[in-house]
Amino acid sequence: MSVLVTGFNGKVGIEVARKMNERNLSFTCAVRNVAKAERMYGDKFSFVKLDFSDPATFGAALEGIDQVFLMYPPGDQIKFHQFLKVIKEKGVQHIVYLSVKDVQYLPFIHHFKNEKLLKRLGIPYTFIRAGYFMQNLHDFLGREIREKNRIFVPAGKGKTSFVDTRDLAEVAIHAFQHPEEFRNTSHVITGEKAFDFYEVAEIMTAVLGERIVYANPSVKEFKSYMVNKGEKEEFVNVVIGIHFPTKLGLAKGVTEDFEKISKSKPIALEKYVKDYKQKWLPDEEGQEQ
Fold first, then answer.
1. How far, in Å, are 5, 44, 100, 272 from residue 166 at the CA level?
2. What is the C-alpha end-to-end distance of the chain, expressed in Å?
3. 156 and which of 48, 55, 190, 247 could share a cystine (Cβ 3.0–4.6 Å)?
4. Beta bridge mates, 48
5. Domain boundaries, the chain
6. Tens-of-pLDDT digits for all 289 residues of the chain?
7. Contact at 8 Å (CB) between 115 and 99?
8. Largest CA distance in the chain
9. Could you tell me if 172 and 69 are in contact, meaning their C-beta atoms sit under 8 angstroms apart?
10. How far is Cα 252 from Cα 8, in angstroms, rounded to an integer?
11. What are the start-end ranges of the E strands in the chain?
């Protein structure tokens, strides 16, 4: 088994690579800038160049690959359909695709179309339909938490089914190790419990020892504030869209799929906050880790 891990620089791809490393599995990490990745990680991972906007990189990246952890990349001029064609030409035997929870009701997002493309491709697939990443709290929500002790996002009072990206990676590893068992299957992966952002703020306050509040801005307030801070309007609109189902009360569903697959409980939100607390709190020298 040789796996190509795409999305290495994202919140899930890096966790897939780490778990593959821990278990001494054969894999290669696809990145746009191999030299930069090697400077950052040394010889911890093996890298190959892959740029989804440049079909000239597709063939070499897939050489000798049996399975692919596939994520839809950010950016312009993405040649995703062409990449799938090369996957088939190269004889890849299994694709594990990171999708989103409730994708079947979201025809306006890339994942809806991509799942259909993958089904038509004729290569065995596994869809991991993910809930809301806990890691968003230290990613695009992290700056406001660090600087103003507030969760600032227009999600209303709705609950959402948070999931740790390490659990998503765990499911991917199971799929790679047991491809026949996961052949042409879909799995909705969430944590055990859904939370609203008021509850998240309470948990973070208890763990961090710093009072965190949920500001609950309106969409208009959020967009105006973020654009005035210098964020690109396109990105701000994406963030609004991500949280719109939560605001409508549509994101609270949880499943037991992770426990059935891994025979263990999903990572709790409290543990996530404890594990990553230095993302919000300065260390002894006042620098963020």
1. 15, 18, 15, 10
2. 35
3. 247
4. 30
5. 3-130+163-189+253-265
6. 899 999 999 999 999 999 999 999 999 999 999 999 999 999 999 999 999 999 999 999 999 999 999 999 988 899 999 999 999 999 999 999 999 999 988 888 899 999 999 999 999 999 999 999 999 999 999 999 999 999 999 999 999 999 999 999 999 999 999 999 999 999 999 999 999 999 999 999 999 999 999 999 999 999 999 999 999 999 999 899 999 999 999 999 999 999 999 999 999 999 999 999 999 997 634 343 3
7. yes
8. 55
9. yes
10. 28
11. 3-5, 27-31, 47-49, 67-70, 94-100, 125-130, 132-133, 150-151, 162-163, 185-189, 213-214
Could you tell me how many residues make up the chain?
289
Distance CA 80, CA 12 (A): 19
Residue 79, both tokens: 């040649």
State the architecture of 3-130+163-189+253-265 in CATH terms. Answer: 3-Layer(aba) Sandwich (3.40)
